[in-house]
Task: inverse folding
């Protein structure tokens, strides 16, 4: 098994088909090196200061991490609201929800000497399983070249189809998401994966953003990390993605707000972000 790799000009329908089939795809050439370098530069000092604060069996002993890293790396905004991330989230999540939202934003730097992370699925905090419904999609942005030696993410292709149970399924058939800097590994919340060990002499930096259906609780509290005065500086699309929008309407409304300050909090999603995504969503749905 491999993870199918596409370049950024590939047909969206082909990428969606591979993501549905394998539970993960790579898309190369999505962000230019200047943007990658700005994000990496903004992350540097906070990673060096507190990246090892969360050391644990799961996080690893030699992996630096930052939660909600948009706060310290504003240059990552274009990644979080990237057309490709949004188009693939549209295709995977909108069949099960009216909107979706960012759940977490984590910088992950695997240092030399780190051992492979335990394989896991990112949707495990949600204690439900609905046949055929994906609740989450993750995008791992490569801020360095991801190689076999430096800890490129390990993925078990097809594992999104494993049934959910207390028993760990056979996970031997993992492959690594080897990809150049500026690419993204896009994977479903149900796909088993984890970071690789770093046998090189250089660190490997990545940024994972996860998106969940709009009716679930976000893993990180985005309203506290990005309060209204901060969110006001973001685009309407990014604000909506952070959760500053409602899910549903009428009696099914979730996340309602009837105050009038700031006015954009109560904008319906159609006014802020759905319109410009309509075409890609239609195209992706046509392929399903
Ligand atoms: O760093 C990676 O390649 C993956 C990390 C990961 O899956 C996680 O920490 O949840």
Result:
């Amino acid at each position: 098994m491999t993870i199918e790799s596409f370049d950024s000009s590939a047909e969206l329908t082909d990428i969606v088909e591979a993501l549905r089939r394998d539970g993960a795809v790579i898309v190369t050439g999505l962000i230019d090196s200047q943007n990658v370098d700005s994000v990496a530069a903004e992350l540097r000092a906070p990673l060096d200061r507190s990246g090892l604060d969360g050391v644990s069996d799961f996080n690893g002993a030699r992996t630096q991490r930052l939660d909600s890293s948009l706060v310290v790396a504003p240059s990552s905004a274009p990644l979080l609201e990237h057309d490709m991330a949004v188009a693939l989230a549209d295709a995977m999540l909108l069949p099960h929800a009216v909107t979706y939202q960012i759940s977490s934003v984590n910088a992950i730097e695997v240092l030399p000497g780190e051992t492979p992370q335990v394989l896991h699925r990112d949707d495990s905090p949600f204690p439900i399983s609905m046949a055929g419904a994906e609740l989450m999609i993750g995008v791992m942005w490569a801020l360095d070249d991801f190689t076999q030696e430096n800890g490129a993410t390990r993925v078990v292709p097809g594992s999104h189809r494993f049934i959910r149970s207390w028993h760990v399924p056979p996970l031997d058939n993992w492959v690594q998401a080897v990809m150049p800097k500026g690419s993204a590994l896009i994977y479903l919340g149900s796909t088993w994966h984890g970071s690789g060990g770093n046998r090189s002499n250089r660190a490997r930096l990545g940024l994972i953003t996860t998106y969940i259906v709009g009716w679930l609780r976000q893993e990180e509290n985005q309203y506290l990390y990005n309060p209204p005065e901060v969110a006001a500086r973001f685009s309407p699309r990014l604000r909506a993605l952070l959760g500053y929008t409602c899910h549903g309407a009428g009696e099914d409304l979730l996340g309602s707000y009837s105050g009038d300050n700031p006015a954009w909090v109560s904008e319906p999603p159609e006014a802020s972000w759905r319109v410009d995504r309509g075409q890609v969503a239609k195209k992706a749905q046509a392929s399903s």
